[in-house]
Structure formats: C-alpha cells, structure tokens
C-alpha cells in the first residue's frame, strides 16, 4: 500500500504541493486549504530564551546545550541574521518566520527547540507559523543598566555597539522585564543561571518527554 510522504517544510502540502502562506492546523493535524488533505505532525512547545544583548544568552547557550543534550536542541538565532532576512520591517517577520519554520522542522525529529535571541512575544505570536507549536515559552536574561553598558562597550568593534544603540538596548532591557519571566544575571554565577534555565525548560517539557520519541502518540500541550 502506498503512503503519502510528509514534507519537512510544514507549509507544503504533501498531496498537492501547495505552499501555504498561512498554514492551517487543527491541534496536531495540518490541513491544506487548496485540496483539503490532512496530515499529522509533531506539535511541540518552543522555548524562547530572550533578553537584551549582553544579558547572557550566548554565554548560557553552549552550557545549556550540554545539559539538555538528547532532550532538546539549543540554537542561536543570529546565525540566520543575514541576507534578505535582515530587513527593516518592524519585528523582522521574514527572519522570525524562517526561524519558526526551522524550529518546527527540527521538532519533527522529536526534540523541542530552545531558541536563544532577542525576541518579544509580540514578534512571534502573530506570525502564521505560530500554529506549528503547542506553546511558546519565554524567559528573559536581564541585568542592571550599568552592567549591560559595561558588557556592551567591551564587545569587539565589528559588533558596532555605539552609545545610541546601547541606550536602545537598555530601553528594551527595562521593557522586557515587564513582559515575560526573567532571571537577573548582574551578579549571578554562570552555573546558577544555567541551572535555572535548565530547570525552566525541563519543568515545561514535563511529561511530554515520555512521548517525544513515539510518533504514534499525540503530543500534549505543555
């Protein structure tokens, strides 16, 4: 008996080949608005480790990847900050949409993604690709203004952290504290911050870990 293949790019219908600009999902089932075909997919939670630049994301990320090896995939979002994805549209929807599609494809391998990068819920939640995830959890790494200034000024020149840009990041630092759960890294030890983020991820994966490697079991929302 022949079977219909499932495309890794979840926007593409495996039956008619249409590429949806606005994917349609009903729980953990995708459906094509053109031909009506329906097919299952892994709808896992996405973890967004956000916060201002110099808050500690790039330092915590490699350690977190070691801790969560085999359970989650930890990625740095700036790796795609290039070419046509680096646009001037507020919120950078092309860039963030590409990352959501990438994360959703990785989820089909059975492990949730922890995406490290400066992002706010308002930049992800309205995107069409949001339907690929059961939840998007946000955690910000923040610090006091003096610490962020010192860290940003110490960065190499190619990062182009001039004073106006630093002040903009300090405004974001203040703003994101009121939007999502946060961890202050000003005086915290690296190991303690990594452990706190690890615990945050694990507590939200919860019982879903038991089903991640079983494609016959429908993934529950965290």
Architecture overview:
The protein has 222 residues and is an alpha/beta fold. 32% of the residues lie in helices and 15% in strands. The protein is built from six helices and eight strands; from the N terminus they run ββββαβαβαβααβα. The strands form two sheets. It has a five-stranded parallel sheet, with helices on both faces. α1 (57-67) packs across α6 and α4 runs antiparallel to α5. It is globular and about 55 Å long. Mean pLDDT is 90; it is low at 209-222. Pfam families: AAA_33. This is AAA family ATPase.
Topology (SSEs and partners):
Elements: E1 24-26, E2 29-31, E3 38-40, E4 46-50, H1 57-67, E5 73-76, H2 93-107, E6 113-116, H3 121-124, E7 136-142, H4 145-153, H5 163-177, E8 181-184, H6 190-205
Parallel strand pairs: 4-6, 4-7, 5-6, 7-8
Antiparallel strand pairs: 1-2, 2-3
Helix pairs in contact: 1-6, 4-5
């Amino acid at each position: 008996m022949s079977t219909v293949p499932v495309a890794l790019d979840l926007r593409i219908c495996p039956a008619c080949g249409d590429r949806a600009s606005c994917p349609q999902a009903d729980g953990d089932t995708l459906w094509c608005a053109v031909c009506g075909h329906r097919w299952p997919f892994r709808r896992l939670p996405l973890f967004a480790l956000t916060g201002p630049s110099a808050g500690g994301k790039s330092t915590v990320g490699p350690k977190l990847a070691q801790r969560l090896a085999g359970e989650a995939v930890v990625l740095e979002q700036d790796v795609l900050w290039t070419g046509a994805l680096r646009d001037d549209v507020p919120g950078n929807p092309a860039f963030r949409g590409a990352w959501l599609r990438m994360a959703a494809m990785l989820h089909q391998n059975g492990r949730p993604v922890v995406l490290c990068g400066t992002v706010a819920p308002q930049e992800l939640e309205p995107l069409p690709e949001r339907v690929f995830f059961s939840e998007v959890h946000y955690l910000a790494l923040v610090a006091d203004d003096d610490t962020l200034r010192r860290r940003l000024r110490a960065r190499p020149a190619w990062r182009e952290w001039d004073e106006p840009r630093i002040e903009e990041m300090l405004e974001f630092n203040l703003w994101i504290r009121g939007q999502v759960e946060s961890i202050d890294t000003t005086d915290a030890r690296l190991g303690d911050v990594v452990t706190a983020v690890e615990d945050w991820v694990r507590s939200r994966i919860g019982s879903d870990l038991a089903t991640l490697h079983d494609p016959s079991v429908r993934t529950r929302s965290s």
